[in-house]
Amino acid sequence: MAYGMKLKVWGPYACFTRPEMKVERVSYDVITPSAARGIIEAIYWKPSIRWVIDKILVLNPIVFTSVRRNELEGKIPLRNVTTAMKDGTSAVEVFIEDQRQQRAAIILKDVAYVIEAHFDIVGKEDVDPEKHRAMFERRVRQGQCFHRPYFGCREFPVQFEWADDELLPSEHRGEKDLGWMLHDIDFAAGMQARFFRAVMKDGIVDVPPFDGQGVKT
Predict the structure, then answer these.
(1) Is 203 left (phi over 0), alpha (psi -120 to 50) or beta?
(2) Which of 75, 111, 149, 170 could form a Cys-Cys staple with 39, CB 3.0–4.6 A?
(3) What is the helix (H) or strand (E) element at residue 53, kind and residue range?
């Protein structure tokens, strides 16, 4: 059994990075289903439920801007972590002064969306759907979250509120092909990325089922 709900999210900046861009960050035109799922799970998640994104309503005009951001050149080597886990004394550390570098990024400005989603019961315990829906709505209305949700990068925080059933106005009219977009990661298949052809009609992007015919690796 599935229970649907709507969540309005907005913020001054967002970056939903295209995986085909290897060095510089370039954002998709709109939020991806995986990013939308991450926002909802930051507010409420339990092992017995699985969130599914159904639709994304794009409220504001799509505006890109470019920035330069300080980033780390690399990650902590896996062997350093493994060594520290084995001996319990080796340091796992990275000094930003040694590895700082600037990278250009093409990001989105003044974003606002309504995320339509539902959850499926996947566990054998804690299976009361009304309880989960009530807890999610209460946490949204009280502004509670397990960790601060963000738009693609942690420095772009998300504001959120409960969205009622009335249709919020969108700036977009007509149909726009947004190209192939990341749908989500298939964790059961070794972190395999899956994509779908995103089309926005009057500001609405319909998200196909994760295992649907229109979703490809």
Answers:
(1) left
(2) 149
(3) strand 49-58
Q: What is the token pair recorded at 208? A: 């196909």
pLDDT digits (tens, 9 = 90+) for 52-98: 999 999 999 999 999 988 888 888 888 989 999 999 888 888 888 88
Residue 77, token pair as written in the block: 């080597």
Write out the two tokens for 1. Answer: 């059994």
Q: How many CB atoms sit inside 10 A of residue 49's CB?
A: 22
- List b or e across 116-141, with b for residues whose CB sees 16 or more CB atoms inside 10 angstroms: bbbbebeeeeeeebeebbeebeebbe
Low-confidence ranges of the chain (pLDDT < 70): 1-3, 22
Tokens of 107: 């990001």
Beta strand 64-72 pairing with 100-121? antiparallel
Q: Residue 203 pairs with which residues in a beta bridge?
A: none
H or E, element range at 109: strand 100-121
Q: Which pLDDT score, from 0 to 100, does residue 1 have?
A: 47
* C-alpha span between 144 and 159 (Å, rounded): 11
Question: What is the reported pLDDT for 36?
Answer: 96
C-alpha 168: how far from chain center = 21
Q: Angle at which helices 129-141 and 33-43 pack, to 10 degrees?
A: 90
Rounded CA separation 136/152 (Å): 22
- Are the C-beta atoms of 186 and 195 separated by less than 8 Å? no
Asked whether 59 and 170 are in contact (CB, 8 A), the reply is: yes
